[in-house]
C-alpha cells in the first residue's frame, strides 16, 4: 500500500484534534473524526443520531464483564434484529476505518482506530496528552468555561474515552504508551512542533509516501 494513515488518540484538552487538523493541512490529506459517523450513516441509510446515541448508551452502561463476548469484524445484515445494536454500529464504523486504511492517506482521530488498524503496516499511531493544568487552560479558552467546569469536563470525557477503549479493545488501557508509535506531551512540545515531529516520522517510516498520497 502506498497510502498511509495516522491515528490520533488524545486526552481531552491536550490538543489532539487541533494537531490532527494541522497535520491535515501540512500533509494535504483529510482528517476524520465525526465524519466516520456520518459515513457510517450514509452507507447504512441509518440516521446519524443512532450512531451518536450508541456512544451515549455506552457512556451510561459499561458492560465490561462482557468484554470477551463482544463481536468483532462482523457486521450483521440489515434484516437482522441486531443491525442497530451498539456493537454492530461500532463494527460498521470499524469497517469504514479499515476501508479508508486500504484506499487513501488520511488522519483518523479517536474511534479506537489504533486498535482497529493495529495489523496494518501503513499506519502510524499517535497518542497526545498534557498535564491537567495545561488541559484545563486549553478547555477554559476553547469552551469559555470556568476552571471548575473545565476540570469536570476533562474528568468525565477522559473517563468515557478510557471505558470506550477498554470495552471495544477487550480490556486494553487507552493511556498505555506501548499501544502507540509516538507519544507526545503538549505541555512540553508545542502543537506546531508536534506536527513537525509526526511529519518527520512519516518521512522516516514511509520514505517517498508523502509525495504519492
Structure description:
By secondary structure, the protein is an alpha/beta fold. It is 50% helix and 11% strand. A 5-stranded parallel β-sheet has the order 2-3-1-4-5, sandwiched between helices. The relative contact order is 0.22.
Entry keywords:
213 residues; alpha/beta; 5-stranded parallel β-sheet; 50% helix; 11% strand
How far do the termini sit from each other? 11 Å
Structural class: alpha/beta
Largest β-sheet summary: 5 strands, parallel
The main sheet orders its strands as 2-3-1-4-5
In terms of DSSP E residues, the strand content is: 5-15%
Poorly predicted ranges (pLDDT <50, ≥5 residues)? 56-84
Order of helices and strands: EHEHHHEHEHHEH
Radius of gyration, taken over Cα atoms and rounded to an integer in Å:
17 Å
* Number of helical elements: 8
What number is the mean pLDDT? 82
Number of strands: 5
| Principal-axes shape call | globular
Helix percent reads: 40-55%
Question: Outline of this structure?
Answer:
By secondary structure, the chain is of the alpha/beta class.
List the helices and strands and how they pair.
Elements: E1 5-10, H1 16-27, E2 31-32, H2 34-44, H3 48-60, H4 86-103, E3 106-109, H5 113-116, E4 123-129, H6 132-143, H7 147-168, E5 182-185, H8 191-205
Parallel strand pairs: 1-3, 1-4, 2-3, 4-5
